[in-house]
Amino acid sequence: MSYIYIVPIELEDDSYLEPLERFVFQTFHLRTKKKEFKINLKDAFDPSRVQYNSSLILRQLIIKPPLDAEKILGVLDVDLFIPILTFVFGEAQLNGIGAAVSSHRLHHRYYGLPEDGGATTDRLLKEAVHELGHTFGLIHCTQPKCVMNSSTYVENIDQKPAELCSLCQKNLKIEKNDTISKGFPFSWWSKKR
Amino acid sequence: MKPEEIGILIVDDEPSVRDSLYQWFKDDGYRVDTAADAASALKKLQENPWDIILLDIKMPGMDGIELQNRIKQIDKNIVTIIITAYASVDTAIQALKDGAFDYVTKPIDPDDLSKLIRNAIDKRRLVTENIQLRQQIEDLLLPDEVVGESSSIKKVMEMVNTVAKTDSTVMILGESGTGKELIARAIHSRSSRRYFPIITINCGAYPEGLLESELFGHEKGAFTGAMYRRRGKLEMADKGTLFLDEIGNISEKMQMDLLRVIETKSFARLGGDKTVDVDFRVISATNKDLEKAIKEGSFREDLYYRLNVFSIKIPPLRERRSDIPLLTRYFLSKYAQSMNKSVTDFSPQVMEMFTGYDWPGNIREVRNVVERAMVVAQGTQIQLVDISFPFPPPATPSGGASLEEVEKDQIMKILNQTNGNIAQAAEILKISRLTLYNKIEKYHLKR
């Protein structure tokens, strides 16, 4: 049995992890497992930019993947960057195992607006599915009504749905043996509720 | 262009920059590769085609500006984007002067990078489209009817290619129907003026006043019936070519006006005083002996020398008989296609007749004869019965032929008429079949 590991990394607020797990399962039909990994965020910190290098975090995340890990999604709330860009919402290995996503720039408060937890959760779900989509071999989709449509600023994320378009669903590279056809496993569902 | 059709090469000595850009573009579905320095970038340029190259300015060894220059020498249409951590006005100006599409500083806002790449792809697409369209136009412009493999037509085409590269006036000489306009179009389509029009005016087709108006145009009210201002052919030919067909047929006044326009490259519309500047190349054509006309005083010598800087004489078809099979088959295939017929060739008798015929109307006559034959043809071959000439060849051999030659020609003619049917031919010739067989053998005739 393979799982998508959801890995919280030094989160101040983990309230959006539960809907995240549920939504990841609904999208990819793979069981999820929440687990903390030993990640040293300081190693990824760049004092000159006051940001965290997401590639270095990703490297730590996948250094020793559990045997039953189909994918590993790191969830953070720090400001992420890759060296060439000013920031990223998340990063993933195309056709790889690891992905990371941060809520830092998904909060209304980051843009000087009153905080809206629901909006942050929605955005995080979309970005998490988007980055995991890359690990399942999906590239950016040109359809605006697809979660794999590229988002370079936060309003982009709000405009697109949380779901994959039919073509991206078709192109998902998931082993059929690993998927579960209907709903969540009972034990998981009852425990979470 | 689909993302996978676009190749992006990233050249940066910093592995983290290379890797992050690589991943970023991979997620978009582009074909991506990286190079750590100029040498490996140039090697990758030889291995694969690239549409967009992102270059770091500061690299050990050859820097980004020099590398960009080398890339542009290999393919000036590759879109280059300079990325630098240390922006300076000097390097930015230098990079852009050397042909960079943009100059950006690290780190880049993701949205700016997306827009930058989108714009770079648009530019690349437009450049590629432009090259393809130019090629298509060139293919369309190349006249496909200059057909022939004889040494004389090859020589004509060599002259066409030579003169096309210059802007000299050209006079094309040749009998009616030899394809003078085609040669004019061939010169135009091979010249630097090919993207502008070639305007043809048949000088022999207009009475004097009308030719003047056709060439120079007129202002509103210039004459009775001139309700609007009208551009003349000279204006229409601006930056292109003016082809004056049948130049030997213009009046003395027109000759003078034309000489002035060719010399000054400016004129005034009829009824107007405003000078219009034009830039065109003149190609003229005639089937008249202009030197004789000069001697007779009906053609201006100065205009003749202006028009006749370079002259091309097209040989009549009877002087290049070896081209007749090629030409006739060319028109056969053309009309078979346009009339949707399954005719694929001429019968051997027809081809024999064609190659023996003088074609006084030259290529125009060939086209006419083949087109008419195609209309009536049945089956896959054009037969003798399908052929009719606008200028029929003489029915009897020319004077001085021997009795045997007359007999041979007559038998051949009747055999052609009957499609080689011996019984019918013998009946027409009023001889026995056996005699006809003997004559066929004697004269080595084909049935």
Structure, explained:
The complex is a heterodimer of chains A (193) and B (447). Chain A is of the alpha/beta class and 193 residues long. Chain A has helices at residues 17-28, 54-61, 117-135, 154-159, 166-171, 186-192; strands at 3-8, 31-34, 45-46, 51-53, 69-76, 80-81, 90-92, 98-102. Chain A is built from six helices and eight strands; from the N terminus they run E-H-E-E-E-H-E-E-E-E-H-H-H-H. Chain B has 447 residues and is α/β, with parallel strands linked by helices. Chain B has three domains: 3-138, Rossmann fold (3-Layer(aba) Sandwich); 151-313, P-loop containing nucleotide triphosphate hydrolases (Rossmann fold), CATH 3.40.50.300; 320-442, Helicase, Ruva Protein, domain 3, CATH 1.10.8. The longest helix of chain B has 32 residues, at 110-141.
Please write out the topology:
The complex is a heterodimer of chains A (193) and B (447).
Chain A: E1 3-8, H1 17-28, E2 31-34, E3 45-46, E4 51-53, H2 54-61, E5 69-76, E6 80-81, E7 90-92, E8 98-102, H3 117-135, H4 154-159, H5 166-171, H6 186-192
Parallel strand pairs in A: 1-2, 1-5, 4-6, 5-8
Antiparallel strand pairs in A: 3-4, 7-8
Chain B: E1 7-11, H1 15-27, E2 31-35, H2 38-47, E3 52-56, H3 64-74, E4 79-84, H4 89-97, E5 102-105, H5 110-141, H6 151-164, E6 170-173, H7 180-189, E7 198-202, H8 208-216, E8 217-218, E9 230-231, H9 233-236, E10 241-245, H10 252-264, E11 266-268, E12 275-277, E13 281-286, H11 290-296, H12 301-307, E14 310-313, H13 324-338, E15 345-346, H14 348-356, H15 362-376, E16 381-382, H16 403-417, H17 422-429, H18 433-442
Parallel strand pairs in B: 1-2, 1-3, 3-4, 4-5, 6-13, 6-14, 7-10, 10-13, 15-16
Antiparallel strand pairs in B: 8-9, 11-12
